[in-house]
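On clarity, I found the account of how folds are encoded harder to follow than it need be. What matters is that the chain and its backbone geometry are given together, residue for residue. For the editor and my fellow referees, an illustration may be useful. For illustration, here is how one protein appears when written out as sequence plus structure tokens:

___
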Amino acid sequence: MAVLKIFYDGGCPLCLSEMKHLMKLDQQQKIDLVDINQESFQAKYPNINREKADRILHGQLANGKILLGLDVTHKAWNLVGKGKWIAIIRWPIIRIFADFAYLQFARHRHFLSRLLTGKERCESCSLEREKC
């Protein structure tokens, strides 16, 4: 059973890129990824509001606890053994600025994706563990 379930925007090329990278590193399969754009999302996960999950990354621990934003990112990278590289984003003073920056990124991720990848949205994106 996975330690962390991440509810991500599978239509965002930048989001998908990070999830693919996590899957490559997740050799022990501690992370489950759920695309919030799948048709049956709300029926399968009634406790996760899709609109809110589209504004800020949501994660759920095996015990049911919900994590948001950079807390999800921090937990995920820790689970794949790369937490030391992003530990700074949870340090007390830096956390405030990192969370603000993340919220700005999340709000403008499609525009930023277009600038960085040439694609604002990805209609046919898919993420399969064995293809990562």
